Amino acid sequence: MFACPKKASGPIRYELTSDWLRKAETLAEVKPRKGRLWHTYRAGWATARKNVPIQDVAAAGGWKTNQIV
User: From CA 29, how far away is CA 25, in angstroms rounded?
Assistant: First the structure.
């Protein structure tokens, strides 16, 4: 989704995007949830789309399956 800042032809590292998210939470004064960095936002995004068919939410979210694990 985002190109690597140092090498535009490659993908961005998970660690760098996680650092960016932590910094954004700090700047927004959002209390981080321990051990739930990305899942919190993914779940919130999906929950906000409860009125949309699950197949469409899964496709928009880039999920391989719509099964809950």
Answer: 6
